[in-house]
């Protein structure tokens, strides 16, 4: 067995037309994914509603999330992270259109977060 090595900032290839999703590790119960955004938002009226818990950290750029229920925007800067429980409906309100916004998302079974 050999280790797998990579760099989260390599080959960002920002694209104003579509977000980029790269699975870095996928196991039975855990998925780790790098997401690169360049001005993308969730479509109007669309809400993520994942059956898994999600922990996400913003590594570069800037973004804001919205949560169902009208709590306003949660603005994120590099280093900010958030645990989103399963079925907590949320959407991407905005991402920086001038530079790549790099996210690291970890998905795991519901109820196993802190």
TrEMBL record:
<dbReference type="InterPro" id="IPR013096">
    <property type="entry name" value="Cupin_2"/>
</dbReference>
<dbReference type="InterPro" id="IPR014710">
    <property type="entry name" value="RmlC-like_jellyroll"/>
</dbReference>
<dbReference type="InterPro" id="IPR011051">
    <property type="entry name" value="RmlC_Cupin_sf"/>
</dbReference>
<protein>
    <submittedName>
        <fullName>Cupin 2 domain-containing protein</fullName>
    </submittedName>
</protein>
<dbReference type="Pfam" id="PF07883">
    <property type="entry name" value="Cupin_2"/>
</dbReference>
<feature type="domain" description="Cupin type-2">
    <location>
        <begin position="50"/>
        <end position="107"/>
    </location>
</feature>
């Amino acid at each position: 067995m050999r280790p797998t090595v990579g760099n989260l900032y390599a080959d960002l290839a920002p694209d104003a037309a579509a977000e980029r999703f790269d699975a870095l590790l996928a196991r039975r119960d855990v998925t780790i994914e790098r997401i690169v955004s360049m001005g993308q938002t969730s479509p109007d009226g669309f809400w993520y509603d994942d059956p898994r818990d999600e922990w996400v950290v913003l590594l570069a750029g800037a973004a804001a999330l919205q949560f169902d229920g009208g709590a306003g925007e949660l603005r994120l800067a590099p280093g900010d992270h958030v645990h989103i429980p399963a079925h907590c409906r949320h959407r991407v309100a905005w991402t920086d259109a001038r530079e790549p916004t790099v996210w690291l998302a970890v998905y795991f079974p519901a109820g196993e977060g802190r």
